[in-house]
């Protein structure tokens, strides 16, 4: 058995779990686009269609997302590491230098993403140093490009499927 649980060991354990990378984009009332990189995302329910994202209270975008009523969960594709880094930066300011399309609700979809889920925030639940945002998905955009993966602190790619036939 491992030593007693610590914050450092907790981070090391989760770093060993490969995840996709999502960028949560949203608009402010003045139309400015903001976003944050997240891998603490998941589907919650099929009926209704619900997703969640966990956001650190120290994130520069946290107060803006708290004021928002909607967001788009964009799953990044291979080759979009620069987008992940931009939205993960604490000092990213100004209009994001990436191409966006708009959903039917006018929300920003990152061009080239694997999938984008436009959702209305239904709940905000505080859990430790994060808030869990639960949102009802109202629009979905899909592509057939391979996803960007994060594992042990590095960007990676999905390996081809292993055939057992």
Can you describe what's shown?
With 165 residues, the chain is mainly β. The protein has a single domain (19-153), classed as Pnp Oxidase, Chain A (Roll), CATH 2.30.110. Helix content is 14%, strand content 45%. It has 3 helices and 12 strands; from the N terminus they run αβββββαβαββββββ. The protein has helices at residues 7-15, 62-67, 81-88, and strands spanning 19-20, 22-27, 33-38, 41-46, 49-56, 70-75, 100-102, 108-110, 115-127, 130-142, 148-151, 154-157. The strands form 3 sheets. The chain has a 7-stranded antiparallel beta sheet. Strands 1-11-12 form a 3-stranded antiparallel beta sheet, with no helix packed on it. A two-stranded antiparallel sheet has the order 7-8. A hairpin with a 2-residue loop joins strand 4 (41-46) and strand 5 (49-56). The longest helix is centred in the first third of the chain and has 9 residues, at 7-15. The radius of gyration is 16 Å and the shape is globular. It starts with 6 loop residues before the first helix and ends in an 8-residue tail after the last strand. The relative contact order is 0.22.
What features would you highlight for this structure?
45% strand; mainly beta; 3 helices; 165 residues; single chain; Pnp Oxidase, Chain A
- The average pLDDT score comes to 90
- Largest sheet strand order: 3-2-6-9-10-5-4
Named CATH architecture: Roll
Q: Element order, helices and strands?
A: HEEEEEHEHEEEEEE
Coarse structural class:
mainly beta
Strand content: 35-45%
Shape: globular
Tell me the CATH topology: Pnp Oxidase, Chain A
Note poorly predicted spans: none
Overall helicity: 10-25%
- For CATH, the homologous superfamily is named as Electron Transport, Fmn-binding Protein, Chain A
Distance between the termini: 37 Å
**Major sheet attributes:** 7 strands, antiparallel
CATH class: Mainly Beta
List how many beta strands DSSP finds. 12
Radius of gyration: 16 Å
Q: Number of helical segments?
A: 3
Question: How many discrete domains?
Answer: 1
């Amino acid at each position: 058995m491992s030593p007693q649980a610590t914050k450092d060991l907790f981070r090391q354990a989760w770093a060993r779990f490969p995840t996709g990378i999502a960028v949560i984009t949203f608009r402010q009332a003045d139309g400015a686009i903001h976003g944050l990189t997240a891998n603490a995302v998941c589907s919650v329910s099929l009926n209704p269609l619900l997703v969640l994202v966990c956001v650190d209270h120290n994130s520069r975008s946290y107060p803006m997302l708290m004021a928002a009523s909607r967001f788009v969960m964009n799953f990044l594709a291979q080759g979009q590491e620069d987008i992940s880094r931009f939205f993960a930066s604490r000092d990213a300011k100004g209009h994001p230098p990436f191409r966006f399309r708009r959903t039917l609700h006018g929300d920003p979809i990152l061009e080239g993403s694997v999938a984008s889920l436009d959702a209305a925030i239904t709940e905000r639940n505080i859990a430790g140093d994060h808030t869990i945002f639960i949102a009802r998905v109202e629009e979905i955009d899909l592509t057939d490009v391979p996803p960007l993966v994060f594992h042990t602190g590095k960007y990676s790619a999905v390996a081809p499927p292993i055939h057992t036939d």
